[in-house]
Each structure stands twice: as structure tokens, then as C-alpha cells.
Amino acid sequence: MKVKLSTTSLLSKPFYLFTLLLLVLFGLVVMSLVTGAKTISVSESWSSLSLWQVCHSENCDIIRFSRLPRTLAGLVAGCALGLAGALMQSLTRNPLADPGLLGVNSGASFTTVLGLSVWGSLSFWQSYSLAFFGALLAAVIVAVTGAGRGGRLNPIRLTLAGVSLAAILEGLTSGLSLLNPEIYDHLRFWQTGSLDVRQLSVFTLLSPFVITAAGLTLMMSRSLNALSLGEDLARTLGIRVGLVQILGVLLIALLSASATALTGPIAFIGLIAPHLARGCFGSDHRYFLPGTLLLTPAVLLLADIIGRSIGPGEIRVSIITAFIGAPVLIGLVRYRIGRGIS
After folding, report:
1. What pLDDT is attached to residue 76?
2. Do 99 and 248 lie in a common domain?
3. What gap in Å lies between CA 254 and CA 256, rounded to an integer?
4. Neighbouring C-alpha atoms within 13 Å toward the C-beta of 22
5. Cα 183 to Cα 6, 105, 252, distances in angstroms
6. Which of 239, 265, 291 finishes a domain?
């Protein structure tokens, strides 16, 4: 009797796509290390990353203290923004939902400017801590305000609360910054998001938050699949809808706050990447969320590489993502808004 082994489960479409995305992401990481004002070979970049080797050249310093932190920032911020956007769209069932709806950008800007007004100047760690705290606090306030009866998420109230809080904080931030030209210059520089992170030590503090939030998000795949069928049907399947929504919003807040504190506000990434992942993997969150986790940092690193490669100077990644994201947003409004996110 012959036994016919089926490889469908192993060599399915998601398997091929995940493999391809991993290869693309690895290639973009290598390109991010070697691309810049000064071209450095792959072999020299690799040898510069060796922990047992002491830097004795300018190229080694560039790799270790400029391009490596920059690449890690793209990976961490990309994963955080992508998952936050995917969660936001899934929970609100709104194809145009973005992590910025929670007011994280405005909260981070306000606490940073407030700290500058009080202390006059901020160290890197003080600026990062204030931005993280402000973004997280703003997101929690919006989440609590946007919750309906029984703690369930109300998308309309959530959006209105986010827009209202953002308007208030942006007004206060502008008022404080206009009183001091130095604060205004700092705010203008920070609000144009960039991956130009110069300290590796920040990742030791940030990574546990992002890894924990990403892990919990991936574990919610079954609940999100049930929730996409409607709240009533999800309850019949044993899903605690209110708890899932509250946990989801808190995870969005944590992911968005981490990314915003690290790189500043980067527009469109949390909106675009989930749609690209959904187009590749479908709406099943078991594949859609891991796909977003790989696709978003790839898009962010690609945008950063383009910004470093064109023109005599460097174009910030937030500007490149805006150029990429605006046409995609127009396409979403034109072709997808009437059909939801399915």
C-alpha cells in the first residue's frame, strides 16, 4: 500500500509568502547597513558588527554607532506601527483607522515641550521617557473616553475622543513652543519623524515593551477572527468582546507610544502596511498579523534607504512615507472604503 504524503500544509501560499518576506527583509537590512553618504562593502559591514572586534576605522564607527541603530529603529518601529495599525483597523472595522487616532503623536509632543519649558534642556533619555509617557497617557485617556457601556469599544466615540484630545494638546503645544524659539526649533525637528537613532542602549529599554505587546497581539488572532464576524456571533463562540477590545486598545497604545517615542511621528505606515499584508495573506489574523509584522519594517526600511539615496542630502523617512502613503490612501478611499476591511 502506497502512502501519498501531502505537502500542502507545509508548502502553502502563506509559507511561500512568509519565506519571501523574510528574504526581502534580510536584504533590506543589509542595504540599510551599506547605504549612505559613504558606501561601505557588505564584508566590511559584517566584520564591523563582530562584538569581539575593536573599532579602529571610521567605517566601523559609522556601522556600529549610526547605521546599526538606524536599522534597528526601522525594525522595531516598523513592527510596532504595523501591528498597532492592524489592531486598530480590526477592532474598529474601519479601513482608514490609524494609530494616530489615539492622540499618541500629540501626547508625545506636548510632554516633550512641557519638559523643555520646565527644565530648559533635555537629555536623550529624558526626552524619550517624556515622549513615551505622554503618548501612552494620551492613548489611555482616549481609550477610556471612547469606551461604551460594559467597557466595549465604540469606534465613533473613540475617533471623536482622539480628534478632540489631539486638538487640545496641539493647541497647548503650539502655545508653549511659540513662547521660546529654542523649544520651537526642537519641536520642529522632532515632529519630522526620523530613524536617525544614535544610541543602542535605548533598545534595551524599548524592546521588552514591543516584544511583549507583539506577542500578546499575535495570541489574539482567534479572538480577532471571531470579532470580525460581529460582536453577537463572537459572544456565541465564547469570546469576551469587551475584554478583547480593551486589551487591544491598550496594546495599540503601548505599541504606538514605543514607536513614537523612538522615531517621532511617522505618518501612513500604520495605515498602509496592514492593507498590503491583508492583500497578500487575506483577512485571517493567523496569517495577516505575522505578515504585517514582517511587511511593515520592510516598507519602513525601504523608505529610509530611498531617503538616504536620492538628492545631495538626506530626506527624512516621514517625508518618503508621506509620498508613498498619499496615493495609497486615495486608492483606499476610492476603492475600499465602501467594502470595509474584508
Report:
1. 93
2. yes
3. 6
4. 7
5. 64, 17, 29
6. 265
> HEC string of 26-93?
HHHHHHHHHCCCCCCCHHHHHHHCCCCCCCCCHHHHHHHHHHHHHHHHHHHHHHHHHHHHHHHHHHHC
Give the chain's domain count.
Answer: 2
Checking if the pLDDT of 153 tops 80, the result is no
Judge whether 301 and 74 are in contact, CB under 8 Å: yes
Q: Which residues contact 328 (CB under 8 A, 6 or more apart)?
A: 268, 271, 272, 275
Residue 238 belongs to a domain with what CATH number? 1.10.3470.10
Which residue, of 265, 285, 314, is where some domain finishes?
265
Residue 292 and residue 197 share a domain: no
Dump pLDDT digits (tens) for 58-114.
777 788 888 889 999 999 999 999 999 999 888 887 777 787 777 887 888 888 888
Q: Which helix (DSSP H) or strand (DSSP E) does residue 311 occupy?
A: none
* Whether residue 104 is found in the same domain as residue 191: yes
Summary mean pLDDT of the chain: 81
Based on the fold, state whether residues 245 and 100 are members of the same structural domain: yes
Measured in Å, how far apart are the chain's first and last C-alpha atoms?
Answer: 44
Q: What average pLDDT does the segment 119-144 reach?
A: 80
Question: Do 158 and 140 touch, CB atoms closer than 8 A?
Answer: no
pTM for this entry: 0.85
Residue numbers of the domain that contains 302: 266-342
Asked whether the predicted pLDDT for residue 11 surpasses 60, the reply is no
* Mean of pLDDT values over 210-218: 93
Q: Please indicate whether residue 74 or residue 132 has the higher confidence score (pLDDT).
A: 74
Nearest Cα neighbor of 69 from 20, 18, 124 is 124
314 in the same domain as 286 = yes
**Does residue 254 sit in the same domain as residue 270?**
no
- Choose from 85-99, 142-156, 278-292 the range with maximum mean pLDDT: 278-292
Q: In whole angstroms, what is the distance from residue 341 CA to residue 92 CA?
A: 10
